[in-house]
Design goal:
The protein has helices spanning about 10-30, 135-155; strands at about 35-40, 45-55, 60-65, 70-75, 80-90, 95-100, 105-115, 115-125. It has about 170 residues and is an alpha+beta fold.
Length: about 170
């Protein structure tokens, strides 16, 4: 401890509890952070997003019109174009497109806005829930740390002075 003080060393159980809670919070932030991308007609570049999908994954594209908009949605796999959907939306309307992947590959999504502006939300629904494995691992670490702390507290020596009565 600074300034010549002393502090008790951090116990392993405290480290496990801290790591478990940190991982749990990080998982909530990772899965809860939803960010829509605003796309305008006068953007210098079109919106492009590259995603890696395995067989059974679903790509969900939501486009919400901020103002009257016209555009084009293109999904390609390598040099092969899989989807090309033009859309026309009035202010406040939304358009949704879903794509199911048949094989593991890199897919490229491109949204071109000719007029207006939109907000795009691209979501992936995974066939295997591997991105949720952080929750049982962090809960396991947290519970192990709590159990270790409970056993440490049970084995603490008690200092006491005994007086004999005569």
């Amino acid at each position: 401890m600074g300034a010549g003080g002393s502090a008790e060393a951090m116990k392993f159980s405290d480290v496990l509890i801290l790591v478990g809670i940190g991982m749990l919070c990080a998982g909530f932030i990772i899965h809860g952070w939803v960010e829509k991308t605003s796309i305008y007609e006068d953007d210098p570049e079109d919106y492009q997003k590259s995603v890696h999908l395995i067989s059974g994954d679903k790509l969900i594209i939501n486009i919400n019109a901020v103002e009257d908009s016209e555009g084009l949605l293109i999904l390609s796999q390598g040099s092969t174009e899989l989807l090309q959907r033009p859309f026309t939306l009035q202010e406040g309307e939304s358009y949704e497109e879903r794509f199911d992947s048949d094989e593991y590959d890199e897919y490229t999504l491109e949204i071109i806005i000719q007029t207006g502006s939109v907000e795009a939300d691209v979501d992936i629904s995974r066939a295997f829930m591997l991105d949720f494995i952080i929750y049982p691992i962090s809960i396991g670490i947290l519970l192990f740390g709590l159990q270790k702390r409970r056993s440490e507290l049970a084995n603490v020596a008690v200092d006491a002075e005994l007086e004999l009565q005569e």
